[in-house]
Design a protein that fits this description.
Length: about 220
């Protein structure tokens, strides 16, 4: 029963964790699009050190979040597959840190009226476009954000339950394997070994053959 429950939890954790990975891939694709727009407008990549423009921190942030989500997804799949305690602890640590970061940003946005001043000016203009998109589609963005946070919380809960169930019980001992099959050996028929008298050579074997011939006569 525990083995079946563990397998179900592993499958559900992989499925839920895949949602985080798809979100990370979407962020990376959006970052690639923003990099392409920056290159088309400025004539250079935003990662150049000798650029005359200030660095577009919004592109860096989105790209970093996308890569972070993908790393968390990979660690979650490894933890779900192996059910190892260290992997599960590391995965839970990543998810908790991500939730704390999201909570800090959310609190700053909702409680601080001048939250926009906490962020530097974005020369690419993508930050302003992102804000306008959220304001014009607030209900949709709200449910998307809540769904993503719920998925992260559910993955954390599943990892905790999987850690409480413990790792897989693998077969280690040959003695235990043999003891389980001893009753089968008791019912096995006796084995006879037929030895050819002429197989060996020597005085003892020759004397035994002569005695056998005399007995038969």
């Amino acid at each position: 029963m525990v083995r079946v429950l563990r397998s179900c939890l592993q499958s559900i954790l992989k499925l839920v964790n895949s949602v985080i990975g798809m979100s990370g891939l979407a962020m990376i694709l959006y970052s690639a699009w923003m990099i392409r727009v920056w290159q088309r407008q400025m004539g250079e990549l935003p990662f150049g050190h000798d650029s005359d423009y200030p660095p577009p921190w919004f592109i860096y942030t989105f790209l970093g979040l996308g890569v972070t989500f993908c790393v968390i997804t990979c660690s979650g799949h490894v933890a779900a597959e192996t059910a190892n305690g260290c992997c599960l602890y590391l995965y839970m640590l990543f998810v908790v840190l991500l939730l704390m970061l999201e909570a800090a940003v959310s609190v700053d946005v909702f409680l601080n009226q001048d939250w926009e001043e906490d962020f530097p000016k974005d020369p690419s203009g993508n930050f302003d476009q992102f804000k306008n998109f959220i304001r014009s589609n607030y209900e949709m963005c709200k449910w998307i954000g809540l769904s993503l946070v719920s998925v992260q919380g559910l993955s954390l809960l599943l990892a905790m339950i999987l850690k409480a169930l413990g790792p897989h019980q693998y077969y280690d001992s040959d003695d235990e394997y043999a003891l389980d099959r001893v009753p089968l050996l008791k019912n096995a028929p006796p084995q006879y070994v037929v030895v050819d008298p002429g197989y060996g050579h020597g005085p003892k074997n020759d004397a035994w053959i002569r005695n056998s011939d005399k007995t038969n006569r």
